[in-house]
Amino acid sequence: MRILLIVLSLFACFPAFGKDKLSVNMQRVVGIDDSISRNMDAVQAKLLEFAKDASKGPIDIVIDSPGGSVFTGFQFVNAMEEVKGKGITLRCFVSGIAASMAFQILVHCNERYALSRSFLLWHGVRTGVREPITASSAAALHADLASIDKVIMKELKGSLELPEATILFHFNQETLHIGDNLALLCPNFISTHAYIPNLSEALHSKDVVRNSASSAPFFSFGGNADEGIQYIYRGR
Fold first, then answer.
1. Residue 72 in contact with residue 40, Cβ under 8 Å?
2. Which residues, 6 or more positions from 81, have their beta carbon under 8 angstroms from its beta carbon?
3. What would the pLDDT profile of 41-86 be if each residue is shown by its tens digit?
């Protein structure tokens, strides 16, 4: 009995002892490892499939992406919010980079982890136009971009817990934050680690659904992939 009490007291002194270390769950993970375009269908479908069984715990999303299409990205965000609405925790892990739309996906996770030397970036939305622009169409583009930027800024302010002026500075400056630096700046937003088990494996396993398996053009309006207007939220 005395030995048992000694063992229990040791656990009380070291609460982290015996707990599982942070690791990507290879049984419930999807990957965003390419530019975000019309290649997210399989990833989104797998996310919703995992969500059918909430009893199995959190779902992991591994990110290594420079961003991409605003429309596709926010469709995926909508699916993430649906999953969270079922009481399921979404854990996001950044491997190489989470920029632009990929960073906005990161914002919508319940828990956020990154490698110490990963890169993170947020900035304003861009548009690619491959047709003549009139004064009226330019005004319409300005209104669209301003509207999307407003949504993005609101979400950033709600998650980063930084002064608006600081967020806006990096928004306009397009600061490329290294993981450890952003974790120091926003400790409640993200934590960084030198190594996260299964992170690299998730980006290379043939059993993990990732958007790099598909390549399709960006969403465009008024034309096909080679013309018209595209709203791109992708980092440099």
1. yes
2. 108
3. 999 999 999 999 999 999 999 999 999 999 999 999 999 999 999 9
As a whole number of angstroms, the distance between CA 64 and CA 43 comes to 14
How many domains would you assign to the chain? Answer: 1
CATH number (domain holding residue 118): 3.90.226.10
The pTM assigned to this predicted structure is: 0.82
CA distance 19 to 201: 22
Report phi then psi at 215, rounded to 5: -130, 120
Three-class secondary structure of residue 49 per DSSP: helix
SS percent in the chain: helix, strand, coil, step 5: 40, 20, 35
Distance, in Å, from the CA atom of 74 to the CA atom of 44, rounded to the nearest integer, reads 11
Distance, CA of 30 to chain centre: 12
Closest-CA residue to 34 (of 166, 202, 226, 211): 211
CB-count burial class (<10 Å; 0-12, 13-18, 19+) for 24: buried
Structural domain of 192: 23-234
Q: What are phi and psi of 36, to 5 degrees?
A: -90, 110
The DSSP result for 174-212, as a single string, is T--EEHHHHHHH-TTT-EEES--TTHHHHTT-TTSEEGG
At 77-134, the pLDDT tens digits run: 999 999 999 999 999 999 999 999 999 999 999 999 999 999 999 999 887 777 788 9
Q: What is the DSSP letter of 28?
A: S
